[in-house]
Amino acid sequence: MAPSLPPISSLQSLSREDQFRILATLFEPSPQLHTLMDPVLAHQSFSSYASLIDAVGGRMTALSATNSPQDKEILEGILGSHPRLGESSPAAKEHMSELSRKEQANLNKAAGEGGEAQAQAQAEKLRALNREYEEKFPGLRYVVFVNGRGRDVIMEDMRRRINRGDVEREKEETIQAMCDIAKDRAKKLQESQ
């Protein structure tokens, strides 16, 4: 079934399962995101999907500001739910949402324009950068709003962020990227309905 979004006005009246499905559509499947947002969804209404996404971003930002091991675990679970850029193994694709597959297909297609050998070399470099990033920032995953940018631009950004070495800025940028992606998804899904 293709992803879709009901009218935001119906969100509070939906079952928890349907509310969590909406969060997974916008962000990625994440039990930790469900835990974080369950009390909010039960008691708050939203005027738009953008306001819901801003609420999620605000809750994630609040988690990143605490020193609680439990909050850190929840935040890292949410941030780690996003698929790695450039992952192409069947196992990785199996755990990717339909929207992530489409977004990553555009990134992979743009990378293949320079020939198969160049595309393979870029894919390997991207995998190496993902590993380096995750070693530099344990518990985090590199997330960026691709928005039509090619692998070369994305890899330059990864290198810049790795070299910067600031874990708190990484959390901020990752939360912002996840919210930007979610807003783009919401907009496209609402336009297609």
What would you note in describing this structure?
This protein is mainly α and 193 residues long. It has one domain (8-192): UraD-like (Orthogonal Bundle). Helix content is 68%, strand content 0%. Helix 1 packs across helix 2 (31-43). The longest helix is centred in the last third of the chain and has 26 residues, at 167-192. 26% of the residues are buried. The model has no long low-confidence stretch (mean pLDDT 86).
Percent of residues in helices: 55-70%
Provide the domain count.
Answer: 1
Give unreliable regions as ranges: none
Reading off the top of the CATH hierarchy, the class is best stated as Mainly Alpha
How many strand units? 0
Brief digest:
The protein is 68% helix and 0% strand.
Keyphrases for this structure?
single chain; 193 residues; mainly alpha; UraD-like; 9 helices
Which SSEs are present, and which pair or pack?
Blueprint: H1 16-26, H2 31-43, H3 49-64, H4 69-79, H5 90-94, H6 98-111, H7 116-136, H8 151-164, H9 167-192
Helix pairs in contact: 1-2, 2-4, 3-9, 7-8
Domain Oxo-4-hydroxy-4-carboxy-5-ureidoimidazoline decarboxylase: 13-187
Biased composition (Basic and acidic residues): 92-101
Region (Disordered): 81-101
